[in-house]
């Protein structure tokens, strides 16, 4: 029981990191990054490759930085030049990018699956209310909380965060006030994609690394984002916690239906509140 | 304001009279029928085999293109309807003992009914959420069939028991590329014609108005929910017809056909072909399959060139082949007018 609860929290934590990145990018560019799952996968593989040289924590940072650079390039060469085009064009382009990145991962690392060991200090189990539990999973949970708090602190307390929130409300008016919105866009999309890389690297010791490892979790984070109300951090955190629990308990009590359970939740939410849990904010 | 995502769709100029347009339709459809009937004798057997498969997936692409054209929505999950049609007809034909004709009818009705139920839920969340949800549903359905052991064979799929004749046509000739190509060609031409007529009907025009500006359509007094549900159901039915024909042709279904990669490919076909006219996605499908048949040397690494091609098309020429054809025909007509002085 407690094990499932914790597993749900850990998975929910990963979903929070991933969907925060999606929400961040969506807020500014009104586009859902369909390549986000591929960035998650890429983050895991980057961590795998550099962990031998810089250790696990260095690899975690490297994945974040590498994917941030990818995100900055994405903003510079895709989102910014195409910001006056219909959102559907940009959406399809990110889908094309998903194909490219997935294939590149296969080209560079091949199709076989790899595993990444957790950091040496956090390999064993730990005692949680009398039940042994892998300590690394708790590390992932802590990491998710730290990432979410840090992101909110950045957005609420710093000047650049203020600019980012202003640009998400009205990018033109923000530019007129003298804010360099190009730089804000690069930063926001960079951090958003970096979070995908961070989530991938953090998840790497929990499961096998394959080129399609991002497919399942990105679907869940899309569901989280829709249930949460697309542009809302609070909504997606609540939805991620819910979905994490549903997946964890479903895996034990209704294993054949786990893939459908998120959609039952989603259908229920959409019938009652078509714009999601925090829907009022976007419409 | 809800977020509406729609591509720049060229609304074709209705400058010419309806009589000359009808004449042009007639010329094009007669031409298309002639090409369809002659092609098996003119082209190599391989091209015919590839093309008849392309036309089956062309229906899937038409469904994807139709919903984009009439609601501005991008579906990343139409392979669900393509695959479910195959599964439901396959299961009914193999295990229920019903005559195949009845199995086909019931199977299609079941899929369309399910599509209507799904549409009533997801049409409530317009724009970008729709795309994410269709993709998510597709992955879930794929996982469901992939894991389902027993009769449907899980990841391996299963062979369908087909009788000697289907609607009076011998099954062996239905499964030969030469005959199937002609059948596919004719059904495609009829469907393209029907979709073009739908566009000009009251409902078709209303859906275009809703796509352009849902708020304004509602203020005029139209209900904007049900027309969108109908558009979704029609597009799912198109995909289901394709899936049905594909299943009868191969006599086999596996979860692969309802994977989200199939949906993604259909999206690519529709976008490369262009969605402004009903023939666009079909042209896109033909191009996709004929090119893929030539680049087998790429092996497993087809996603990289495909993704790059998609990005280039979307960035440089987002109206696809339909837009290109419009551009060329406008140029020719302009030149002709200048010549006549």
From TrEMBL, chain A:
Name of a matching Pfam family: BPD_transp_2
Matches recorded under CDD domains: TM_PBP1_LivH_like
Topological relation to the membrane, as annotated: Multi-pass membrane protein
GO BP terms, alphabetized: amino acid transport
GO molecular function list: transmembrane transporter activity
Main localisation: membrane
Transmembrane segments: 9-32, 44-74, 86-109, 135-155, 185-210, 222-246, 252-272
GO CC, one annotated term: plasma membrane
PANTHER family per the UniProt record, alphabetical: ABC TRANSPORTER ATP-BINDING PROTEIN, BRANCHED-CHAIN AMINO ACID TRANSPORT SYSTEM PERMEASE PROTEIN LIVH
Protein name (record): Amino acid/amide ABC transporter membrane protein 1 (HAAT family)
Organism, as annotated: Chelatococcus asaccharovorans
From TrEMBL, chain B:
Localisation: Cell membrane
Membrane topology: Multi-pass membrane protein
Molecular function in Gene Ontology: branched-chain amino acid transmembrane transporter activity
Segments passing through the bilayer: 22-40, 73-95, 102-122, 128-145, 180-198, 229-254, 266-290, 302-328
One GO CC term, this protein: plasma membrane
Keywords noted in UniProt: Cell membrane, Membrane, Transmembrane, Transmembrane helix
Cross-referenced Pfam families: BPD_transp_2
CDD domains attached to this UniProt entry: TM_PBP1_LivM_like
Major localisation: membrane
Protein name in the entry: Amino acid/amide ABC transporter membrane protein 2 (HAAT family)
Biological source species: Chelatococcus asaccharovorans
């Amino acid at each position: 029981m407690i094990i499932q609860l914790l597993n749900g929290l850990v998975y929910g934590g990963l979903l929070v990191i991933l969907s925060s990145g999606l929400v961040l990018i969506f807020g500014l560019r009104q586009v859902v990054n369909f390549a986000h799952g591929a960035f998650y996968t890429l983050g895991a593989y980057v961590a795998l490759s550099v962990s031998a040289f810089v250790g696990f924590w260095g690899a975690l940072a490297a994945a974040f930085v590498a994917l941030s650079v990818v995100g900055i390039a994405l903003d510079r060469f895709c989102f910014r030049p195409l910001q006056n085009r219909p959102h559907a064009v940009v959406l399809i382009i990110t889908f094309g990018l998903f194909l490219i990145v997935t294939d590149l991962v296969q080209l560079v690392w091949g199709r076989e699956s790899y595993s990444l060991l957790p950091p040496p200090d956090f390999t064993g189990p730990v005692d949680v209310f009398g039940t042994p539990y892998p300590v690394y999973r708790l590390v992932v949970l802590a990491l998710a909380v730290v990432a979410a708090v840090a992101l909110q602190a950045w957005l609420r307390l710093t000047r650049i965060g203020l600019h980012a929130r202003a640009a998400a409300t009205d990018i033109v008016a923000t530019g007129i006030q003298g804010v360099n919105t190009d730089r804000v866009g690069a930063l926001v999309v960079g951090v958003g994609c970096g979070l995908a890389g961070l989530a991938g690297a953090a998840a790497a010791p929990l499961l096998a690394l394959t080129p399609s490892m991002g497919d399942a979790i990105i679907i869940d984070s899309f569901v989280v984002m829709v249930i949460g109300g697309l542009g809302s951090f609070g909504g997606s955190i609540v939805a991620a916690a819910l979905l994490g629990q549903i997946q964890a308990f479903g895996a034990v009590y209704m294993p054949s239906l786990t893939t459908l359970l998120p959609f039952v939740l989603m259908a229920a939410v959409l019938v009652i509140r078509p714009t999601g849990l925090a829907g009022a904010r976007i419409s | 304001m809800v977020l509406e995502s729609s591509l720049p769709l060229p609304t074709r100029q209705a400058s010419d009279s309806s009589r000359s347009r009808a004449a042009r339709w007639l010329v094009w459809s007669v031409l298309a029928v002639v090409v369809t009937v002659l092609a098996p004798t003119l082209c190599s057997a391989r091209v015919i085999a590839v093309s008849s498969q392309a036309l089956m997936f062309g229906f899937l692409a038409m469904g994807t293109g139709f919903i984009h054209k009439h609601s501005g929505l991008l579906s990343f999950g139409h392979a669900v309807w393509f695959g479910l049609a195959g599964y439901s007809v396959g299961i009914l034909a193999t295990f229920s003992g019903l005559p195949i004709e009845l199995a086909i009818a019931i199977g299609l009705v079941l899929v369309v009914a399910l599509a209507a139920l799904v549409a009533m839920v997801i049409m409530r969340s317009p724009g970008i959420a729709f795309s994410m949800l269709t993709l998510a549903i597709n992955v879930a359905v794929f996982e469901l069939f992939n894991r389902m052991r027993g009769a449907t064979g899980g990841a391996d799929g299963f062979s369908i028991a087909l009788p000697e004749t289907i609607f009076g046509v011998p099954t062996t000739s239905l499964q030969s590329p030469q005959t199937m190509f002609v059948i596919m060609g004719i059904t495609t031409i009829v469907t393209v014609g029907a979709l073009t007529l739908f566009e000009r009907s009251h409902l078709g025009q209303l859906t275009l108005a809703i796509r352009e500006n849902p708020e304004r359509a509602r203020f005029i007094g139209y209900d904007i929910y049900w027309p969108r549900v109908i558009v979704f159901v029609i597009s799912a039915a198109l995909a289901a017809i394709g899936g049905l024909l594909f299943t009868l042709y191969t006599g086999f279904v596996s979860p692969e056909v309802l994977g989200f990669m199939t949906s993604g490919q259909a999206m690519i076909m529709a976008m490369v072909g262009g969605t402004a006219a009903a023939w666009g996605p079909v042209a896109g499908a033909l191009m996709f399959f004929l090119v893929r048949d030539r680049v087998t040397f790429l092996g497993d690494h087809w996603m990289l060139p495909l993704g790059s091609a998609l990005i280039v098309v979307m960035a440089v020429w987002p109206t696809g082949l339909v837009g290109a054809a419009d551009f060329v025909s406008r140029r020719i007509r302009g030149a002709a007018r200048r010549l006549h002085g």
